[in-house]
Amino acid sequence: MSRAPIALFVYRRLQHLQQTIASLQADPLARESELFVFSDAAKQPQHAADVAEVRSYVATISGFAAVHVVNRADNFGLARSIVSGADQLCTSHGRVIVVEDDLIVSPMFLSYMNGALDRYRDDERVMAVSAYMYPVRRPDDLPNLFFCRIPTSWGWATWARAWSKFQPDANVLAAQLAGSGQVEAFDMDGNYPYFESLQAQARGDLDVWGVRWYASVFLQGGLCLYPARALVHNAGMDGSGVHCGRSTAYAVDLGRATMAPFPDEIIESTAAVRQIVDFFRSLREPLPKRLLRGALRHLAPFRQRA
User: Fold this and answer.
1) What is 253-283 written as a DSSP string?
2) Interior/surface letters 6-41, b for 16+ CB within 10 angstroms, e for the rest
3) Model confidence over 249-300: pLDDT tens digits?
4) What confidence tier does 246 reach under pLDDT thresholds 50, 70, 90?
5) Most distant CA atoms of the chain, gap in Å
6) Total domain count for the chain?
7) Which of 82, 124, 126, 181 could make an S-S bridge to 120, C-beta 3.0–4.6 Å?
8) CA-to-CA distance for 306 and 303, rounded, in angstroms?
9) Range of 253's domain?
10) Per-residue pLDDT tens digits for 167-189
11) Is residue 190 part of a domain?
């Protein structure tokens, strides 16, 4: 099988982008993969110099089967840019791997993505592949690979057959969810306010694509493949991004990721859902308790070896 194209979305953070490219280049399948770089135009005049610097660097990128650059003349914003880029590559190639300019990927990232895209290409129940996994407390208790209802947005992939189900109108999605009686399930059994985000998108208070993709997948009864340990880390949670503030809550250790056979049974992992729900609940804990819990989690391997 040919390798899936990589869609990389960039804006104005050169140092983050250089880390992303370096991590992709370290993947053995990079030289067999075409890279499509979608560079957004400056939203504000003071961003123009940063955008120009990023575009100058993008023109020097090598280490891939081919590098195609799309320099936007207008500022699309992240949501419109990703939807447009995914549309383009799903139409031309039938599938796509999506990466943003603040992600650092494991050297196994492309093997995992391409393997999953090949393995489940004809299975309508599988609508997305995630390389990110939340830093849950007990990943060793989970299958190495499993399915969950939520498609994540940090290092993901899909097929044209699944992306064709993407509904961009949040009003339509919110109405369908409300009518289905599944809002609580959509909110991970009432533990994360995804439906509120969808309603905010419908009102025009948010401009995000991820919750619309999740709602589109959920309403189709689709699932997303996950690794028990993340194959991608978001290095942009340092306050430099437009959509993410400063946080270490989602940090992961790429050095502990492993590969495993792809599961044959297409069913959501109840164990994974419980652990993801526990993680969401932990985000609502007071900061001192979160810090203590994080410290204990990092000390756990040392306690086990003692």
Assistant:
1) -GGG----PPPSS--B-HHHHHHHHHHHHHT
2) bbbbbbbbbebbebbbebbeebebbeebbbbbbbbb
3) 899 988 777 778 999 999 999 999 999 999 999 987 554 444 444 443 434 3
4) low
5) 59
6) 1
7) 126
8) 5
9) 6-165+220-305
10) 999 999 999 999 999 999 999 98
11) no
Residue 226 belongs to what H/E stretch?
strand 223-227
223 contacts 126 by C-beta, under 8 angstroms: yes
DSSP string, 91-156: HHHSEEEEEETTEEE-TTHHHHHHHHHHHTTT-TTEEEEE------S-GGGS-SEEEESPPPSSSE
Mean pLDDT score, 200-225: 97
| DSSP structural state of residue 169 | -
Could you give the CA distance from residue 40 to residue 31 in angstroms, rounded to a whole number?
25
Q: Please compute, for residue 261, the number of CA atoms within 13 A of its CA located in the half-sphere on the CB side.
A: 3
- pLDDT score at 283: 87
pLDDT in tens, 120-170: 999 999 999 999 999 999 999 999 999 999 999 999 999 999 999 999 999
Q: Is 71 helix (H, G, I), strand (E, B) or coil?
A: strand
CATH of the domain at 136: 3.90.550.10
Map tokens 């994360």 to a residue. Answer: 192
| Nearest in space to 160 (alpha carbons), one of 214, 132, 124 | 124
134 close to 277: Cβ distance less than 8 angstroms: no
Q: Name the pairing type of β-strands 34-39 and 6-10.
A: parallel
